[in-house]
């Protein structure tokens, strides 16, 4: 007999941007399923009709797609399954696992105020729980779960361990509202059961919900899924992640230029560990990921670690694949590469640009020399490097560049020869060359830049720099 197929899911609410914590939960579910030949499902919990929007739903789809977290089948709309949820509530009503409660909001509020005044529990206990059906009024009602009053409900959690909830502290929760619409608690259980979800891996803010949801499973005699409630993501100060800590939405990280592989690596490592491994591939993550590696303490978002991991992924990436993802990054910002020639130059430069860039934003900065148009504007520090002496040296270098073979060794030899003639180090020539080629002080190697932009453009930019008039000092 073969083991049942693993089925996990992510079930975000489309009420805003896709939070980085939701993305990590999705990633953990995806890794667990994909590493075991299972299915990863997507359900959009859009029952809150006032707050759910099509834009937020699209943000979820975009975020998962950008992260490379493919889901099986179509995304399921929870709202579209409302009739199925109601059918289960009515089935529970017929079996006696649920009952009709006619208590009004005013009566419930009055009960709680009286209990509070007497120092008693404010947990509402409906007077209709054991009422004779013949005494039911012709009035609006909700359907409540007939929860056990004695004993305890135990959540056997793969991360938190055995967590016990006394049933005396759990009320008869509402399954169907008075207008016939299902509640979140009922919908989640029905959907997870119908979708065949075997493992519910989610944030520990849902741990209390698990106890209530288990009672619905038991009432329906449905098998329980495996629960794994992981700690939430906190900021670097140990407090719940919020806007004051920086970016909290997945699309913000995409727009900041982090490669998707780097985000997958970093988010996998955020609260989960595999020995001392920090940098790893998707294949390794799928093979290694298990629930036992998830810690019980809240994970802390660390931008320094993210940048470090991102830099490693960019350096290790295939040049062509990195260029493709860079173009997608630009497109997301509403930008494109100017033409095929510039794209070819960028492809040629990718092998050295990626070695020092940690994000695509930094890649844009470091590739500036490719896209700069003559005449270049010089940053103040670069302008200072183009003094009378250095411009004279550039003039001497130019004839060598016009005739030399256009390869790195020959270019470096030509520059070295001019430097030695002036009894200066090569660095003294590199500074004005850097200014001439890019107009900036922080650039790739001058010889790498020259090879990429070619002989004609190199000589033309140097000629512009030679003609540059050093700003006079203020009097």
From TrEMBL:
<feature type="domain" description="Aminoacyl-tRNA synthetase class I anticodon-binding">
    <location>
        <begin position="327"/>
        <end position="466"/>
    </location>
</feature>
<comment type="similarity">
    <text>Belongs to the class-I aminoacyl-tRNA synthetase family. Glutamate--tRNA ligase type 1 subfamily.</text>
</comment>
<dbReference type="GO" id="GO:0000049">
    <property type="term" value="F:tRNA binding"/>
</dbReference>
<dbReference type="InterPro" id="IPR008925">
    <property type="entry name" value="aa_tRNA-synth_I_cd-bd_sf"/>
</dbReference>
<dbReference type="InterPro" id="IPR004527">
    <property type="entry name" value="Glu-tRNA-ligase_bac/mito"/>
</dbReference>
<feature type="domain" description="Glutamyl/glutaminyl-tRNA synthetase class Ib catalytic">
    <location>
        <begin position="5"/>
        <end position="307"/>
    </location>
</feature>
<keyword id="KW-0067">ATP-binding</keyword>
<comment type="subunit">
    <text>Monomer.</text>
</comment>
<keyword id="KW-0648">Protein biosynthesis</keyword>
<keyword id="KW-0436">Ligase</keyword>
<dbReference type="Pfam" id="PF00749">
    <property type="entry name" value="tRNA-synt_1c"/>
</dbReference>
<keyword id="KW-0963">Cytoplasm</keyword>
<dbReference type="InterPro" id="IPR020058">
    <property type="entry name" value="Glu/Gln-tRNA-synth_Ib_cat-dom"/>
</dbReference>
<dbReference type="GO" id="GO:0005524">
    <property type="term" value="F:ATP binding"/>
</dbReference>
<protein>
    <recommendedName>
        <fullName>Glutamate--tRNA ligase</fullName>
        <ecNumber>6.1.1.17</ecNumber>
    </recommendedName>
</protein>
<dbReference type="InterPro" id="IPR014729">
    <property type="entry name" value="Rossmann-like_a/b/a_fold"/>
</dbReference>
<feature type="binding site">
    <location>
        <position position="243"/>
    </location>
    <ligand>
        <name>ATP</name>
    </ligand>
</feature>
<dbReference type="InterPro" id="IPR049940">
    <property type="entry name" value="GluQ/Sye"/>
</dbReference>
<dbReference type="GO" id="GO:0005829">
    <property type="term" value="C:cytosol"/>
</dbReference>
<comment type="function">
    <text>Catalyzes the attachment of glutamate to tRNA(Glu) in a two-step reaction: glutamate is first activated by ATP to form Glu-AMP and then transferred to the acceptor end of tRNA(Glu).</text>
</comment>
<dbReference type="Pfam" id="PF19269">
    <property type="entry name" value="Anticodon_2"/>
</dbReference>
<feature type="short sequence motif" description="'HIGH' region">
    <location>
        <begin position="12"/>
        <end position="22"/>
    </location>
</feature>
<dbReference type="InterPro" id="IPR033910">
    <property type="entry name" value="GluRS_core"/>
</dbReference>
<keyword id="KW-0030">Aminoacyl-tRNA synthetase</keyword>
<dbReference type="GO" id="GO:0008270">
    <property type="term" value="F:zinc ion binding"/>
</dbReference>
<dbReference type="InterPro" id="IPR045462">
    <property type="entry name" value="aa-tRNA-synth_I_cd-bd"/>
</dbReference>
<feature type="short sequence motif" description="'KMSKS' region">
    <location>
        <begin position="240"/>
        <end position="244"/>
    </location>
</feature>
<dbReference type="GO" id="GO:0004818">
    <property type="term" value="F:glutamate-tRNA ligase activity"/>
</dbReference>
<dbReference type="GO" id="GO:0006424">
    <property type="term" value="P:glutamyl-tRNA aminoacylation"/>
</dbReference>
<keyword id="KW-0547">Nucleotide-binding</keyword>
<dbReference type="InterPro" id="IPR001412">
    <property type="entry name" value="aa-tRNA-synth_I_CS"/>
</dbReference>
<dbReference type="InterPro" id="IPR020751">
    <property type="entry name" value="aa-tRNA-synth_I_codon-bd_sub2"/>
</dbReference>
<dbReference type="InterPro" id="IPR000924">
    <property type="entry name" value="Glu/Gln-tRNA-synth"/>
</dbReference>
């Amino acid at each position: 007999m073969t083991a049942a197929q693993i089925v996990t899911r992510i079930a975000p609410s489309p009420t805003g941007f896709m939070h980085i914590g939701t993305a990590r939960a999705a990633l953990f579910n995806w890794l667990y399923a994909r590493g075991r030949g299972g299915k990863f499902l997507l359900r959009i919990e859009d029952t809150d009709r006032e707050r759910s929007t099509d834009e937020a739903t699209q943000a979820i789809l975009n975020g998962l797609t950008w992260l490379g977290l493919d889901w099986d089948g179509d995304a399921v709309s929870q709202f579209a399954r409302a009739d199925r949820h109601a059918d289960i509530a009515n089935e529970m009503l017929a079996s006696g696992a649920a009952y009709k409660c006619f208590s009004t909001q005013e009566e419930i509020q009055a009960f709680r105020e009286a209990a509070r005044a007497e120092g008693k529990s404010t947990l509402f206990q409906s007077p209709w729980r054991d009422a004779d059906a013949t005494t039911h009024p012709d009035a609006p009602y909700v359907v409540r779960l007939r929860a056990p009053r004695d004993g305890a409900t135990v959540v056997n959690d793969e991360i938190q361990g055995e967590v016990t909830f006394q049933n005396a502290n759990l009320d008869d929760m509402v399954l169907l509202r008075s207008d016939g619409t299902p509640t979140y608690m009922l919908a989640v259980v029905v959907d997870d059961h119908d979708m065949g979800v075997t493992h519910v891996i989610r944030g520990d803010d849902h741990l209390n919900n698990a106890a209530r949801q288990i009672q619905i499973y038991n009432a329906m005699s449905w098998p329980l899924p495996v629960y794994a409630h992981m700690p939430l993501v906190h900021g670097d100060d140990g407090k719940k992640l919020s806007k004051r800590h920086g970016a909290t939405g997945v699309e913000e990280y995409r727009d900041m230029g982090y490669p998707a592989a780097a985000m997958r690596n970093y988010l996998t490592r955020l609260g989960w560990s595999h020995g001392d491994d920090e940098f790893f591939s998707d294949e390794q993550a799928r093979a290694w990921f298990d629930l036992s590696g998830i810690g019980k303490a809240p994970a802390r978002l660390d931008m320094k670690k993210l940048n470090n991991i991102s830099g490693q992924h960019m350096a290790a990436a295939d040049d062509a694949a990195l260029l493709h993802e860079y173009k997608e990054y630009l497109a997301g910002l509403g930008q494109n590469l100017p033409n095929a020639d510039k794209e070819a130059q960028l492809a040629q430069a990718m092998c050295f640009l990626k070695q020092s860039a940690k994000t695509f934003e930094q890649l844009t900065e470091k590739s500036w020399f490719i896209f700069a148009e003559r005449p270049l504007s010089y940053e103040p520090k670069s302008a200072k490097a183009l003094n009378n002496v250095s411009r004279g040296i550039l003039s001497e270098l130019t004839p060598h560049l016009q005739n030399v073979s256009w390869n790195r060794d020959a270019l470096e030899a030509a520059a070295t020869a001019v430097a030695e003639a002036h009894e200066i180090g090569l660095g003294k020539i590199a500074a004005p060359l850097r200014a001439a080629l890019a107009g900036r002080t922080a650039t790739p190697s001058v010889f790498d830049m020259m090879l990429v932009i070619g002989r004609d453009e190199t000589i033309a930019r140097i000629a512009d720099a030679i003609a540059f008039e050093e700003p006079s000092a203020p009097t």
